[in-house]
Amino acid sequence: MSVRVGLIQTRTPADHVAALAHVAPLVREAAAQGARLILTPEGTNVLQKDRARLLPALQSLEDDLVVRGLRDLAAELGVWIDIGSALVRREDGKAANRQAVIDPTGAIVASYDKLHMFDVDLPTGETARESATYEPGDRAVVVETPLGVLGLSICYDMRFPALYRALAVKGATILTVPAAFTRPTGVAHWEILLRARAIETGSFVLAPAQGGFHEDGRGTWGHSIAIGPWGEILGQLDHDAPGVLVVDLDLDAAPKARAAIPALKNARAFTGP
To answer: Looking at the annotation, which residues are catalytic?
Structure first.
């Protein structure tokens, strides 16, 4: 079985109205090229580093303007949309970095809150404290769809291979890794980490990304990429500008890769050190 997917690369603005106007034409472009599953990056609905401006603007996932707009688009176009993440208000009032899978009726069929918070001090002097704004999730999520079984993750999660093994063991053959990757780490680690996650699990990896210099002052790497279960690059944008990457996935490739290198089956429990 083959499925055509579209990866959307954005430069998301700092308010919701502008963000929807930015991403919607790109989703339409992917659908026009035949994509049946369309994936957007982390922070699709808004990117704003200033917590004093961001937090009052956050809504629940169901009430978010961009999420509502993309649900309407999914229903209009008859496609699946994976909103790589929307920055939203949780039921308890805290903020979450939340991925949402939308079916062709516009229904939210699954959601996932980012597990690993990006709390770092980079050699360049750049710092990030994601945990100061967002509450981390506590569960991994696998979603069965007619187009394949998705395993959900977001950005910094890619540095924690145990998550991807767990998703693959539970049946995921398509791993989603939407991101807003920093430029210094993007140059060094983006492609190699994503290819490693594909190889070690025998899975497709789909990584739509934010790219360029944003209104809130951040810079993101772009270079959205789709990788096959053998670690081969199926398609990649070679820039950080907004755009669309459309690729075809041969879903039979995942079981073939896992049969050739049965690492998921051969892993053993151990004690120590």
So the answer is: 42, 114, 155
